[in-house]
Design brief:
The chain is an alpha+beta fold. It has 3 domains: 89 residues, Arc Repressor Mutant, subunit A; 97 residues, Arc Repressor Mutant, subunit A (Orthogonal Bundle); 109 residues, no CATH class. The chain contains 12 helices and 11 strands. The strands form 4 sheets. Strands 1, 2, 3 and 4 form a 4-stranded antiparallel β-sheet that branches. The protein has a 3-stranded antiparallel β-sheet with strand order 5-9-8. The longest helix has 18 residues.
Length: 317
């Protein structure tokens, strides 16, 4: 855990003890430090670090009365208005589904990079590690499974076991290990957000849109197949493209999260054992509505056009 993360946890702990109000409390490393196992001196350093950034006011280091046969070191501190705002921001970040997903996906890559030269990580081991903890809360198993599947779907990793080198995503089992592909190792070497890496890889390739129906194509480098309806495989791939592109969109965080949630919904519908066109249409329309909220973001505009093409050709229009 980094020093900055420790400081964030202390700020959240102070906010919890004060309910976000401007009331004075004591940070006692002997009795009250339930947010961390930091040493006494480290607590003072953390409080001083927060104070230097205008997040808390404090009375400085001093000795308290002896309790249970030992000195109680205390630093009385108060959240500043800036500290209250920062604590609220951290709480929102911790509860953000997309940020939890990113933390899991990035953490899986980093954990696998530690296993040189095999680049493996057992998903259950990752779930039990500190890398699966975001601001004091452990990431849920469903999010970790989605992150692992995202790595496999985007060819950053394969599912590996002693007897089976690659298993399909449908057979995903957290007891198996992920083995990074060359692309996954490249992502780890660059220390880049996984979804941003995938988006950059997609931007570097010509965009190919499969248009189903007899309509004219829109955009460059398109291929056309005259099959009317919603193609599940292409819609699932399109949903993955939206999920990857969301990280680079210049949009408020709530809109980014809604776009990602709708993309996941579309992917789930497209990957059902027996996909239903009506359900896929509703999911696609919902995702398109979310993308429309992205305003003039260029990536969103391209995706809106592609979603419109799917809807138009499926209707035979």
């Amino acid at each position: 855990m980094t020093f900055e993360t420790e400081a964030d946890l202390l700020l959240l702990w102070i906010r919890e003890k004060t309910a976000g109000m401007d009331s004075r409390i004591s940070v006692d490393p002997h009795r009250s430090c339930d947010w961390s196992e930091a040493a006494k001196g480290e607590v003072f350093r953390l409080v001083a670090w927060l104070a230097e950034r205008g997040l808390v006011n404090h009375d400085g280091q001093r000795y308290g009365q002896r309790n249970a046969g030992c000195n109680s070191f205390t630093t009385r501190c108060t959240l500043t208005p800036k500290g209250v705002r920062e604590a609220e921001r951290l709480l929102q970040l911790r509860g953000n589904k997309l940020h939890r997903f990113d933390t899991a996906a990035n953490g899986l890559i980093v954990a696998a990079m530690d296993d040189v030269p095999d680049y493996h990580i057992v998903v259950q081991d990752f779930a039990a590690s500190d890398r699966a903890v975001l601001l004091g809360q452990r990431i849920d198993a469903e999010t970790i499974e989605k992150a692992a599947a995202f790595l496999v779907d985007n060819k950053l990793a394969t599912v590996y076991s002693r007897s089976v080198a690659i298993r399909p995503r449908e057979a995903f089992d957290p007891s198996y290990a992920l083995a990074l592909t060359p692309s996954g190792i490249q992502c780890g070497d660059q220390h880049i957000n996984v979804r941003k890496f995938v988006a950059n890889q997609q931007d570097a390739r010509p965009v190919t849109t499969n248009i189903y129906g007899g309509n004219n194509q829109i955009g460059d480098h398109n291929t056309q197949n005259n099959n009317i309806g919603f193609p599940p495989d292409d819609l699932a791939q399109f949903a993955q493209q939206v999920l990857a592109a969301a990280v680079t969109m210049d949009v408020p965080e709530p809109i980014r999260e809604r776009i990602a949630e709708d993309a996941e919904a579309l992917q789930r519908e497209a990957e059902r054992e027996e996909p239903q066109p009506s359900r896929m249409r509703r999911a696609l329309e919902g995702m398109r509505e979310s993308l429309l909220q992205a305003g003039q973001d260029q990536a969103a505009q391209k995706l809106i056009e592609m979603a419109g093409n799917f809807l138009m050709t499926a209707s035979g229009g």
